[in-house]
Amino acid sequence: MESSENGQGDFLEWGDSIRHPREDAEFTFTYNVRDFEHVLNVHITLPLQESIEEFGYRLIASHHIPCYLHNDLFRSLGIFTQQKTEEFNKKVHSNLLESLKDRNTKPKLLNDWLTALSLKERKEGKVERQSIHLDTAWSDIYHALIHSSALEALLQLEHSYSVAMKDLVRQKNEELKDLQNRHVEEMEEMVTMVGTTKSDHDVNQLTAKQLEQSQMQEISWSSAISELQESQKREYRQWVATVHEKTVADESYNEFEAQINRHARSPSMESYQVNNYEVVNSPQDHFMEESFTIYLGNQMKSMHNIRLVCRDMLGFCQCKTLFVGGSMVPQPQRLQTAMTLYSENLSALILLVDDRFNSSYMIKNRFQDICNESTEFHFQNIDKQICMIEDNLQNRPNRTRTLRSSSQMRKPKPEKTTNLLQTGDFYITKHSNLSEVHAVFHLVTDDTVSTQTINSRHPIMVGVRNIMLASARHNITNLIIPLLLVHEMSENLTIQWCMKRAELVYKCVKGFMMESLSWDGNDSRTLQFVVPAGISEEMFAAFNGMLPNIFRVSTTLDLSKLTT
After folding, report:
1. Which of 51, 194, 272, 437 is surrounded by the fewest CB atoms within 10 Å?
2. Which residues contact 524 (CB under 8 A, 6 or more apart)?
3. Residues 366 and 455 placed together within one structural domain of the fold
4. Alpha helices per DSSP H over 300-340
5. Same domain, 268 and 397
6. What domain range includes position 85?
């Protein structure tokens, strides 16, 4: 559409110019210079294609307007442009509405739209663009992004958040340790003065005061850590959604990646990583391991993988970072875990714990510390998950314990229990910030498991069976099992005891695997038997030699023995 110069007011012209209607208007600006009045008349094409400041400076340069009049010129030009543009838009819209009443206009408008759409399709190569919706599931967004070229940038962001979280946890531990040392010194000084200037009442008052101070410090730090976790989780989810939207729209997210790299490689971050964690160019951990391929079933055979590993159980959870040339390089195991988070190929391990949710069991505390080293972006943190499990168990009625289903013919008397957890029970926690596992089966055990001889009907073995069945139902294809059902070696664990325990676990797990195949079909699975770190090479070799005698292991064909 163009304005008509003949004054007839016919501004409607269909075609390419419909997107850019124009109209000329005369702008007048009157000003005084040295007691002489000057009038500036300029024809302006509305709407302006540039800003008012840019157009005003062009007038100033071409008409030599003094600097003290610049603000007045900009103000007058802004008022004039806004007023004339509004009048012009109203006039254009009115004419467009009137033109639609004409029958000859509609066919021409239809042809113009068809031409414009065909040009757009040719320009885009007739590629249908996928659009992102606000109701898209978080799992779908993350799964799509982790399998795209944004993988490295996403892990860089997670690492930068982990560094900040570790720094805050370190400050908390240092301050609480200093407070504890100060309390010990105060109590020792108080005890030395009891009977002279102080009494037992003063000692009790000091104890209550110190306890209150410790609780206040714990609450303060817990609040700070929780606030940081929520902030990181909110920013992380917003970043993922934004990058996914731009990736779907085939737009570049390099600015996000550059921002992440700058954040992760800042001087304070690099100093913290190198000096405090000493992970720069650190070699991979070395541990004894052996792998086997086994077959299960008589008629319909299925192939599975078995690994025997000697290492710390929590080594599967601890995320370690390697730095090469100042750049963060994630572990291959961590990459695999992140890429299979929302898939049907999950990994889990069995962690032996006691029967109390809030206890000082050493490996349980170490595991919670590892989980809290970084923010959990996909699930609830470990503390909230355990609290929810405890609340659910407290709301359930008293249970009765029975033997495994294959022994029901013996009709055992049910054992009524009132405790929340007993030996053989397990609960599951979900994780996305661990190195090699997505879920952890917390299997309840007791001291008798490591001191007495057990059989296949022992509650701990029933718990292992139930865990394997649960793994089959929930697409957990990689399960890590403590071979001796203990996490640490002790003096009372003799060689004979270890061999009997390993043989029992091997045979029971083989039976449990064959039983679970009826749940998930003949899908290939991986089992990793873990023995505690510190055992001798001779004992590891004994465990290694026992496995092929129990499982049906595939053998390599020796071509030299074939006869023609």
Report:
1. 51
2. 302, 303, 304, 305, 477
3. yes
4. 332-339
5. no
6. 16-124
